[in-house]
């Protein structure tokens, strides 16, 4: 099965080379980077590293970046699509463990779960307010959806091709809540979701939204969850 890694990038020049270096190429056939109109040299570095890349003419948002990533991967014949943040916050070497679970039919979607214990998450540099908000939102989303996922807000995910072909992701937000909309749509369609623990890595060069944007994201996520819940009452 053809595996393509997609990198939704914005100002990732400082961490891109480390991320690409650790992607296990014996398991991955192609790497696609979509640059959401970065102000640094992300695109130039992607070209130097030999990546398939595209640059948005204007900054369109995190969700819009993923939409472009997925369309390109599907057009290039991917059977498994791995979405990885190129900020080196997630360990790319673990991709080799994601692929067999999908390839062998155990799951349709795989998530990299960063949070196993509070101590581990905080020791990895996750800010306390992010840890607390992640836990609260994840518990709420699990209750609403009937799932028991360790984390709903990871930036390391793998999809079977059929998942992306079945989910109307073009209709979703162009902002960060796109990730939550994807998971609720996946659950609604009845696709199976598996998880693999990944280490927490926060450091100055890693991308991270500020408190205000995190708050907006949290409110939007609650709205998506409630929308799913009330819709499910009629099914």
Report on this model:
This protein has 235 residues and is α/β, with parallel strands linked by helices. The protein has a single domain, classed as Spore Coat Polysaccharide Biosynthesis Protein SpsA, Chain A, CATH 3.90.550.10. It is built from 9 helices and 7 strands. The longest helix is centred in the C-terminal third of the chain and has 22 residues, at 211-232. It is globular and about 50 Å long. The model has no long low-confidence stretch (mean pLDDT 94).
Beta-strand percentage range: 15-25%
CATH architecture: Alpha-Beta Complex
- The CATH class, by name, is Alpha Beta
Overall 3D shape: globular
The helix tally amounts to 9
By CATH, the superfamily comes out as: Spore Coat Polysaccharide Biosynthesis Protein SpsA, Chain A
Number of domains: 1
In which order are the strands of the major sheet placed? 3-2-1-4-6-5-7
According to CATH, what is the topology? Spore Coat Polysaccharide Biosynthesis Protein SpsA, Chain A
Attribute tags:
235 residues, Spore Coat Polysaccharide Biosynthesis Protein SpsA, Chain A, globular, alpha/beta, single chain
In summary, what is this structure?
The protein has 235 residues and is of the alpha/beta class. It has helices spanning 13-21, 42-48, 62-75, 95-103, 118-123, 128-145, 161-166, 178-189, 211-232, and strands spanning 3-9, 30-35, 52-55, 80-84, 109-113, 156-160, 193-197.
